[in-house]
């Protein structure tokens, strides 16, 4: 996609947490989808193989990994999606409004993983309508209104602008 | 638009980065043809994965699975055999072998184009969200149908065994250059149709009609000799029929697998295939192959121009 103005400068591998199930094919098994998804994010098969166990463990889907994902619940979908996206070793991770799904324990796990990424100096772009999550996670926030940037700055200030808008 | 990139610093213990992973995230509006080729090669595991996915998904819940790929041409064989050989008595010896020799090539062409045209519009959720070389989508249609081509080839071989058909081994090798040329031509048109369809969704419907007409304009069900005779009857050169690139390709397949150039006598069609040496077929393939390569370059350039706005059009 081309930006309508300006430019995008990225360094390294970008991974995105896809919309619920966008990267998954319902007829394929969890295992097959992990490979598909990893390949789409630019990984080699041997890299995926090496990380496979970790991905499955993170998603807590050990028992279901060889089932077709059409039998998964939406929580399982998101868990697998998040597990793949954060295990492909991205330098930039785009998270678009998906964390709302999944149970509380898993949400906590995701937040921990996000914190870990922050400590490791990776870049994350987190899109959300939840001021609470933005306050918890981000160190810089941008408020968009119909595609126009109306505020950029520390999350506290941005959230106040967001509340007024 | 200013674009800058640099390779990221490797963290200790990092696995080696796959080629293309750095350039992949660059928001660069235009890429050269070679750059496209390089990216597709860098993502070849994704391409293979997509091909495998398409094959798997197609037959996932069917009991017969891959056999369906073979039953389709087998059914054609039976129907066309009954209609043309028994009802219409076209007199072509070993008609099923003749038919299948051209038909498997045609199927690779037409089924691929049908699948490739909707390949980007049908995967909008992926195209909108992640970067990967988008040509992978139409090219995976080519790959999946190449597998079908070989499965249908098995039907052809079985047919040869059943009908005790003697293959002219001296021309069999023609199938190799013919397949290569067919793949280049198909890839070019597949890439072209896939990106055009994003902007003009009528493309897929138009394609169906075009392919229907094109099929009957290509000597697959009827022999080349018939076309040549009518053209020459009008005082025209039979070479005019070669303006259809699929004719050159289909003729080469027919010469390779079928090879009966003529059958005279009561109820026989006369000339079936051009009575020419392998060089004649090779020359035609060379011309079509060269044109196909040019088309491929043009298609990739058009694709490059159009793909910048895919996300907005999908």
What is the fold's blueprint, element by element?
The complex is a heterodimer of chains A (165) and B (314).
Chain A: E1 14-17, H1 30-40, H2 45-59, H3 74-87, E2 92-96, H4 104-119, E3 123-127, H5 131-137, E4 141-145, E5 148-153, H6 155-164
Parallel strand pairs in A: 1-2, 2-3
Antiparallel strand pairs in A: 4-5
Helix pairs in contact in A: 1-2, 1-3, 2-3
Chain B: H1 33-42, H2 44-59, H3 67-87, H4 95-117, H5 124-129, H6 136-162, H7 175-199, H8 203-217, H9 224-233, H10 245-257, E1 262-263, E2 270-271, H11 278-307, H12 310-313
Antiparallel strand pairs in B: 1-2
Structural features:
heterodimer, A: 165 residues, alpha/beta, two-stranded antiparallel ribbon, 5 strands, 44% helix, B: 314 residues, mainly alpha, 12 helices, 64% helix, globular, disordered N terminus
Quick gist of this model?
Chain A is α/β, with parallel strands linked by helices and 165 residues long. Chain A has 6 helices and 5 strands.
Task: Give an account of the 3D structure.
Helix content of chain A is 44%, strand content 15%. Chain A has 165 residues and is α/β, with parallel strands linked by helices. Chain A is globular, with a radius of gyration of 17 Å. Chain B is mainly α and 314 residues long. A two-stranded antiparallel ribbon of chain B has the order 1-2. Chain B is globular and about 65 Å long. In chain B, 39% of the residues are buried. At the A-B interface, strand 1, helix 1 and helix 2 of A face helix 2, helix 5 and helix 12 of B.
